[in-house]
Write a structure and sequence with these properties.
This protein has 125 residues and is of the alpha+beta class. It has five helices and five strands, in the order H-H-H-H-E-E-E-E-E-H.
Amino acid sequence: MESEDLYRYEFRTELMNMAASCVGLKPSTAKKKIDGIFQKYKSIICSSSNYTPDYYNEKYALLHKKFLALKMGNIAYSRGNDTTGILLLKDIEQIEVRGKNILLITKTGREITMGEDFKYLEDLF
């Protein structure tokens, strides 16, 4: 823990020095300096060592899909350009994962195969 505090103190000091040294620079040069500092201290800033913006964007998109499904009480799906539909969450009886596909079984016994985009439904049930 002590070494982590030392790194945080060094990070704070470097940020202060960087801010002072960026006065009068072009914005692109200042951005390069800031990016260099953030890359150096990435292990302190990020809670995960596999940090990438795409990783967190995917997490956000997944949570957003779950939230919308719960809020609206349904999911919209489409097959190709022709068929579109809405399935109520309360009508889903069972969810099975079969390879990359998701099999939804409704209360009426209808079986609907969804792609891996609907894998988030597994967490809802």
